Amino acid sequence: MAIATRTLKKLVNDPSDLVKESLVGLAAAHGDLLRYDPDDQVVVRADAPVEGKVALVSGGGSGHEPLHGGFVGRGMLDAACPGEVFTSPVPEQMLAATKAVDGGAGVIHLVKNYTGDVMNFKLAAEDAEDEGIEVMSVLIDDDVAVQDSLYTAGRRGVGATVLAEKIAGAAADRGDDVQSVAAIATRVNEQARSFGVALSSCTPPAAGKPIFDLPEGEMEVGIGIHGEPGRRREPLASGSEIAALLVDAVVSDLSPEGGTKVLPFVNGMGGTPQIELYLLYGEVQAKLREAGLEPVRRLVGSYITSLEMAGASLTLLALDDELTELWDAPVRTPALRWGA
Amino acid sequence: MAIATRTLKKLVNDPSDLVKESLVGLAAAHGDLLRYDPDDQVVVRADAPVEGKVALVSGGGSGHEPLHGGFVGRGMLDAACPGEVFTSPVPEQMLAATKAVDGGAGVIHLVKNYTGDVMNFKLAAEDAEDEGIEVMSVLIDDDVAVQDSLYTAGRRGVGATVLAEKIAGAAADRGDDVQSVAAIATRVNEQARSFGVALSSCTPPAAGKPIFDLPEGEMEVGIGIHGEPGRRREPLASGSEIAALLVDAVVSDLSPEGGTKVLPFVNGMGGTPQIELYLLYGEVQAKLREAGLEPVRRLVGSYITSLEMAGASLTLLALDDELTELWDAPVRTPALRWGA
Fold first, then answer.
1. What is the reported pTM?
2. For the complex shown, is ipTM > 0.90?
């Protein structure tokens, strides 16, 4: 029997069915918010299309849950197109999602900067335009770790994606037009920086072995969400030292003025428990204050993950009044919910 | 330098400070909802005591986050007293929490059935009564895996605790008296059953090594949240088989009538990512329907954890109209939030 030789310590059936079966479960649990179309492999807001509202579509490889399917609902994404684990979705998925949510006011593609995602979303946008749907694309490239990487030309798109989906989703919800919503998503990306550290590797189910090796006593500084190499390997540091390293990396790159109001987003990579994330958040908030910044909003949790990788990333967003108001606006999705 | 020899793959400083430092971070992130008193090591609702409202206090060893500190806020717990990792809090903490939240309408202790917790909450309740505070205790013992265990006489208290905190918290919020709130928490416990499976062990930071060994290719069926042995070791099974095993264990023990409305709570143990939890939820929902039950509410996520353990548990609650209404009532805590 195959089972007797199973060694993959995961709640999966055939690894090649994981993405689809997980999406079935997501829709089963949250049918009030979203539906799953297995033919096109897209997750769509339950009441889409919303007539006259700008629609937001995002997507990318799976393995980063709740990103993106867990952010479909009211006040955030209208649709998500999930690829296989760590693999870009195909243009057909993106086009299907775009058509499913088009309410006549234009559709925005929020695209994390990975070569496959960028290329496929570009093709999908062209096809959608051919069908008479206005599409604007916003590229997210907030990871300061490295310029160019395993799957990316330029900087990688990571945690700012979550913030852009929430904030642009709120702008679409209040009735902004497609140019305005795109401008707000762009502003979030421009005012955000991210940096992450991995304490362990992770195992894509189909591969069945860790995506990279991390020797005992070391951590990967500047990790990518698909296990792409960062800036360097270092001996494992304390939570306080890691907080300092994260804060230094994002603050030195963003260079906000003293007194800037900020939203720190402390994100777990999937295998790091909350007890550690909150320790890290406490350290990060203290260090941001030492740096003269004013944390007035925050997000703590595992929202853009790398399967069961241990580690964390910090995304720092410089707020202004409008972004703060949009952040506070009601949201109702499987993974983020308040005010509704 | 100590750092060069660090091997603990955790975001911690001195492991003995983890609990306190994590609570500092929790309060830093959620100061609108709760405050942390480091002298008594208790987490208290920001506006406590609420005059005339029955107050709910829970607590237990840390390492199960967000339980309990992440459930302090409006419509759930008034206070949590966190012990060290996997260690009962002391009666002084419980007494301090009880006094901090007493609004004159009585205080309920929600106690997970572990010998240390039961004994210490009993002492604290007696001390509180001596100070003129009416205290009622509700014992949670929903884990059907084993009768008596490493730290428990009788059944262990696990996932039903989360549901009881939410539902009893809503009853307190709507103005029920202390007997009524205690009766509702008791009803949740009586109508709930849980069962869990571990795919990996976990490492308490102070110990620095896994709490138990789980050989390659095996899983622990009926795991306790402190790594207590379950019913048996088995070869690793598929997600579908594990779902069947979880559903069978709780349904056979609860024996609900056909057509019963139920709330399945699929809980991650800390190191299992969402993509797997939703696959499991889909399987669980389908099998509950096959068993003639009607899942009308649900909870999916890592809410009562064992540090970074991989695995999941299922808690099944048989609903009635009142429990459903209380489940739906607004809640606003760091880890559970809706309608507010």
1. 0.97
2. yes
